[in-house]
Design brief:
This protein has 143 residues and is α+β, with helices and mostly antiparallel strands. 43% of the residues lie in helices and 18% in strands. The longest helix is centred in the first third of the chain and has 46 residues.
């Protein structure tokens, strides 16, 4: 029961080959996972911001207050510089702003990609639109 010793030397070629082939693939996979995660996160944030901005606008008493409330809500929700670099772009359709009407808010933003620029990841702009109904029984004249 002795130990068999081989006279062939192991120079580690398989380890070097594995490192050369596997390391770049692992780095590329990590970059794909990071970019996909950022896309999903940004899309969810933009969708939530548009919905909240539409609800906020629908609770206002007049169209000008609705526009201000929607902009403020979207700005407050999209403060993450990585998810929405440069802040959101918000457009409000309040032409049908009356009791029983509706208000539509569209939000768009682009995530930062400076940390993924070397990967060649394409730039993207995420857009979401939400509509909120204005209460039918609300009195337009009350403060």
């Amino acid at each position: 029961m002795g130990v068999t010793v081989s006279d062939r030397s192991d120079r580690g070629e398989a380890n070097a080959l594995g490192l050369v082939l596997i390391a770049p693939l692992a780095i590329a996979l990590a970059i794909v996972v990071l970019w996909t995660g950022r896309k999903v996160d940004t899309d969810a944030q933009v969708q939530a911001a548009s919905s909240a901005a539409a609800q906020s606008a629908a609770h206002q008493r007049d169209a000008s207050s609705a526009v201000r409330a929607a902009q403020a809500t979207a700005d407050a929700m999209l403060v993450d510089v990585v998810a929405c670099a440069g802040g959101p772009s918000v457009s409000i359709a309040a032409a049908n702003f009356r009791p029983g009407g509706d208000v539509t808010v569209a939000v768009s933003c682009s995530p930062a990609r400076a940390d993924l620029a070397l990967s060649g990841a394409p730039s993207a702009t995420f857009r979401a639109s939400s509509t909120a109904s204005i209460d039918v029984y609300r009195s337009a004249g009350l403060p």
